[in-house]
Design a protein that fits this description.
Blueprint lengths: L5 H9 L3 E5 L15 H19 L4 E7 L5 H10 L4 E5 L6 H4 L7 E6 L2 H15 L6 E4 L6 E2 L14 H16 L5 E4 L5 H9 L4 E3 L14 H9 L5 E5 L5 E5 L2 H8 L16 H5 L5 H10 L22 H8 L1 H11 L3
Parallel strand pairs: 1-2, 2-3, 3-4, 4-5, 5-7, 7-8
Antiparallel strand pairs: 6-10, 9-10
Amino acid sequence: MRISASGLAGAVSKAGGVGTIASVGLGLTSSHYNGKNYFDANKLALKDELARARATSPVGILAVNCIVALTDYEDMVRTAAENGAQIIISGAGLPMHMPEYVEGFPDVALVPIVSSVKAASLILRKWEKAYHRQPDAFVVEAPGTAGGHLGAKAEDVFSPELSLDKVVPELVGFLAREIKADIPVVAAGGVWDRDDMLRAFALGARGVQMGTRFVCTHECDASDAFKQMYIDAVPGDVTLVKSPVGLPGRALRNPFSDAVKEGAPKGHKCVANCIKNCSFRSEKKGFCITMALGAAQRGDVENGLVFCGTNAPRAHEIVSVADVMEELFPAAICEKAAAEVPA
């Protein structure tokens, strides 16, 4: 929640990447929230974040990640399209109806997140039949290494069948042979450096999605305490927690994650009917995911959920987005610099 907002997204976009705003619960920590207007505040906050990111990056590419499992999913997709997002990415559920939410915005690219060829095939069939369009790309997320909510049952998180090595080539081949369409595949989960990126490209991916790597940047919207958790982390600190969403999530171990495994943390109440299926709201089991993510983002890392990918312990210092992009694309940086040298 608000780990990648206008600060990080604008900087990544300005540096030549796709700057992505995570739309979950943006209103909760905004000036628009009055304690009762969670959903309206989310829409207003997303509009603000897109405007601020665009001010940072006037000509770059901006995306918004909208989670299917959220109650206000449709509203957030529509708000993103109406306020200048060029790409909308959707996971944590299959975005079967996303095209109808962007009607009137044909230039907005739609990118589902999947963890298998089966999931991609279901989306393709639905979209073709109902909307006569195809996804503009697919993100393949590997649950064995990705951060946050994972698109697999707990027992399947580490299955080789859901690894990038398995799914990316399978999906690339399926799209070429069966669909006969030029739909790019983007690899996500466990991508930290240029070598990881090149390995993904060798599998057939034409892009990578990176989250954990950009947390420890100056521009990241997370609190300093959140970033310090990454810097202090060792491999044994990365753990899985059972989310009230019904999916496992990957996070750094802290008093909160320990409490989750022992039972429901104290002091939690339902902030809003924010998730379509929530065990905390319906059965009083677990915790409020909105409270947990919001607390960590604001700096209460003992009583909040610090989502991360498996590479979090590789962060050792706070750097700039430009530093990360230079490491990832040194040739492009050199070419740009050479072009700017006066003749």
